[in-house]
Fold these 2 entries.
Entry 1:
Amino acid sequence: MKNLLFFLTAIVGLCLLATSCSKESSVSEDMELIEQIVASENRATIDISELPEETRTTIDEQYFETYIESAIAARDLGFEVELGNGETIYFSERGEGLVSRRGFRHGHGPCGMGHRGTRVELADLPTSITDYITANYPDAETKRAKTNDNSGNYFVLIKTDDGRVVLKFDADGNFIEEVSCIHHGCGGLTQIEIADLPTTITDYITANYPDADIQKAGTKTNTGNYGVVLNIDGDRVIVVFDADGNFLFERS
């Protein structure tokens, strides 16, 4: 009996060691690939529609509080994606998220730990969260939810008549605030008053998005670019302009 117990304990120990080594190997291999993507001489900016479907799905599900600012393909290696919140995340050529040096998938931003989350099924949300949404956003449709891998906070995406809203709750399900893709610092967008937008930008929006309601506006910390969140018939549209007010691109 003692021999059998010793044998089983040894097997369990070996399995745990193998799993640990496998995880360390995975992180090491992913970090090596990320470094190759960053250093590659065959890097080219691509349209976000050219990203693998798995990549776009991952970002849509796990980074729904922000948007894709730009994407780069490193030939035969993978992809580098810059998000509107200042984070840079990496994916393999097949579109799979890579493990960063900080030990979690994808990348990290200048604020420190990344904002990637673990998807939460809507049916598994704490009742305190669903009750809050029902009471305060009675006509809203709950679309997605996740927990932050670092803080345990919940982020819930709902859709109202006024557009998309991301709600932030603490780990116990207590409401904290509404979150916008226009947020303060960290390489992202620092919110400004809509009235402070240059007239070149407001004139462009009036001419090209006549039915749009301007919800929020901000300036990009590292470039001076402007980001403007529009609500068009309940759908979110983000338009980005350079520091001189010239239109650059549109994102959903």
Entry 2:
Amino acid sequence: MSGPVLTLSGGVGGAKLVLGLSKILDGDDLVVACNTGDDFDHFGLRICPDIDSVLYALSGLSDQQRGWGRRDETWTFMSAIQDLKGPDWFNLGDGDLATHVLRNEFLRQGQSLNAVTADLATRLGITVNVCPMTDDPVATVVQTPAGDLAFQHYFVREQCQPCVTGFRFDGIARARPNGRVIAALRSEPKAIIIAPSNPYVSVDPLLHIPGMLDAIKGANAPIVAVSPIVGGQAIKGPAAKMMAELGNDVSVLGIAQHYRDILDGLVIDLQDAHLAAEIEAMGMRVHVAQTLMTDLETRVALAQATLDFASEIAQ
């Protein structure tokens, strides 16, 4: 196989693995398909949280302490919004705001989200291919007993507190997969990696775009996921809470069950090694590794272990 490695990624957790992969794979050897179901309009600007998490991670701009946004951020804009008693539930740092203003201006000029993302990546010195999953609008909706919530209202405004009963991806039936991603899948990719992102709201939107899942399955490449659940807990975000509320096993077994129809292999943490045999019984191979990514060294080590695992499966 001579094609690139294609990685499906959400935001913060996925961006960590993508950064590790970028230290091993150069330029066109890495294509990252980013979830855009989290995207929304705020103050008249198009906000793309998962794309930006990946861009900031790859450019060295991500805030390692907060876990999201840009490092060395300032908050003059939000302070002024608060002074004016405006909606302040979604924080936009001054540096982050510049990204959104530029994106909105380019979109207003008629450029596609794919073109705008590639332009921003170039401006940030990024050489690997960062691609939105689609240029078409898709909006993740979280279903709760009290009614439907737009994803950012659930995630940020309501702090993930409402009970989850399901999800809907508005616009998904009309969405067309990113052409660069499909081209990667048709070019004999070395591997397809599902980053340790939330399976329901970060990865499922990617897989539900018409034609995407068939293209992934037809790529004749090893499909490997890194579990976002370690020791029965999510490293970051509401994945474990969602799994429990949906009645699913909150463990790597639940992750394996969710992806069992597409995965060739699953990377699990050392803490979950005792569950390897049960996962293998589902028909996929398992690799046990240190999956907690606490610094650049551990990001690169996990990326290399995942690539090596995919190569073993391909043999």
